[in-house]
Fold this sequence. Notes:
alpha+beta, 3 domains, six-stranded antiparallel sheet, four-stranded antiparallel sheet, 29% helix, Reverse transcriptase Ty1/copia-type domain-containing protein, RVT_2
Amino acid sequence: MSLVVQKGLCLSHIDVTAAYQNSPLIALVYMLQPWYWEGDGEDLVCLLKRSIYRLHQAGKYWYEYLLGILKKLGLKQCLSEPCVFVREMVDRGIYVDNLVLVGNDQEISKFTTHLDSEIKIKDMGEVSHLLGLEICRHSSVKITICQTIYIFKMLQEFNMMEEKVSSTPCMPGDTLDDQVGDSSFDQDIYSKAIGCLLYIATCTRPDIRFAVGKLSKFCNDPSQGNWKNSKRVMRYLKYTSDLKLTYSGLEIGVEVLCYADWANDKNDGKSIEGYVVIMGGGTVCWKSKKQQLVAT
């Protein structure tokens, strides 16, 4: 997104129709007859000729099939990010059957035509919603990304819509460690909530990355105190649901900020480190994690 506004490129979205069923099935796979099938005998089985959804290897076969098509069209796979493909002024990012195209109008149109001759696709036009992200192109030099709809769906799922808001994801100075003596909390509910929060923290909200990273340690055996802290993060998201990552083509250069505390974890003496990479006026990469070694 940052490169799009800096270079004045177009951003397009393509969806592949029945993606898994496009790829050939390499392995020999038999399937029980569906209950509504009127076959010649109940003892017969079906021989699959194509991949189908929920088949364990279907995703792998589809990826390899799509990989072959993209390479045939002259794209090179990025070594550090295998779901990104590049050819001159056109980039493509893939997620299962979703393809995001970056380039000028002529290149994107040419690529779409070639791809349509190989597999059946649906041109979704300019990207607006993708994998829970809301992407808005305000002008040729400004793009914003947020997850407002996803956040409110999460709040509804965990009955947080009527809760009071919070101005911070955790109390200042709080290490978010387990509270001794707290009773246990439902593991499934807690893990599901942390999964939602991790997705938000990874995609668009670096401001909750520290809190969510600490709370994710307790997924195996959460306590009531852990759940209370998780609810505070959700109340903070409710308060700040309209915050967006903003990228501007008017700002150039790369800025990197890093930080590490000192022996944050009192049990093992390890520190928490964090970094933020800013490009085009917007954050493009961030992390908050415990260091693997004890800093001396």
